[in-house]
Amino acid sequence: MTAKLILPGATLGVLGGGQLGRMFSVAARTMGYRVVVLDPDPQCGAGLIADVHIKAGYDDQAALEEMANQCDAVTLEFENIPSQSVRFVAEKTTVYPAADALEIAQNRDREKQFAKKAGLQPVPYFALLQESNLQLAADEVGFPAILKSNTLGYDGKGQFVVNDFAELGAAYEQVAKVDCVLEKKINIRCEVSAIVARNASAELAAFPVSENQHRNGILHMSIVPARVSDELTKLAIENASILAEALSYVGILAVEFFVSDDDVLYFNEMAPRPHNSGHYSKDACVTSQFEQQVRMMCGLKPGDTRLLSPVVMVNMLGDLWEPDWLSIFTQNNIKLHLYGKTEARPGRKMGHFNVLAEDVESALVVANEVFEQLQG
Ligand code: ADP
Ligand code: MG
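That is the input. Now the predicted structure with magnesium ion docked in place:
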């Protein structure tokens, strides 16, 4: 199949208008595309950047139709867009990623099964689909373990660390007995992610692997290049590429991995979109993950993903608000990105900054220092 080529002047749509949709919109408009965003929130960050903001829910057929009619291609910024909506839009215009891939990434059990079949190694787990299996799950996985709801989890939401059978029972009650996975809690040396891009002609490009540090289940910092062996870096990219191929994926695919203390690379989860751990690419790579998203949906060749500088990305959550801005602006090697959110709440992602330096260690020193100062 030769891919449909979509060139500047055409109109691109994005389902979802949070920060990822906003950064996609900036990239698309910079490249000369018109942008339509669909998001029910009248204040959403992408709505301020897009040419057109359709303010409607993701299951609003009339709104989806309006979007499809206006757009030469449509993408998405978060995985919980109902897949029926994606299928509906796909009947009328090009949509990447496809609903099939989306449905796999929406469900932890499904994505682990898919990854396993493709030859990757998920953390040992048990798919807990009914209450009568609680004991079996506990016997198979052992403790400590982590109970995670199969769908709708993000930033550590919908998950519970459990140390014994009683805690497992309580956690299962707390998630209202929805479908879950019970995962072995492993000793993590570090977490890494690999982001790959694939177009409809099966051309593939991988971004440099990022090392990710979390706080309270939320990404705090990404360090690139990741401080792991070349073999692990290569393996992470290989694994992400295998998944993209196996899914016949078109778009940006982000894959999270754990590196255990005995140096095993475990598949954790995947996201069918640009990823927080790829925000460093906005300043440190020839092509950002958002430009790459535009390129993939437009049938263009992947842009060069070369790393131009070691970089540390730090998330800015609502907890910091109002930050001491000058602590950023008095540095000459920090790039600030804010998402246009007016209301700051604890845990809410408001922006990030990228520190570029000669080496990762110097970038880390500045990143940590500035993060401290930001809090006033
Ligand atoms: P989310 O969808 O919220 O990102 P994740 O499954 O990625 O959920 O889990 C969030 C974080 O919790 C991970 O980045 C990791 O730090 C920790 N974690 C998750 N699963 C495990 C596990 N099996 N063993 C140890 N730590 C884990
Ligand atoms: Mg995660």
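The chain has a mean pLDDT of 96.
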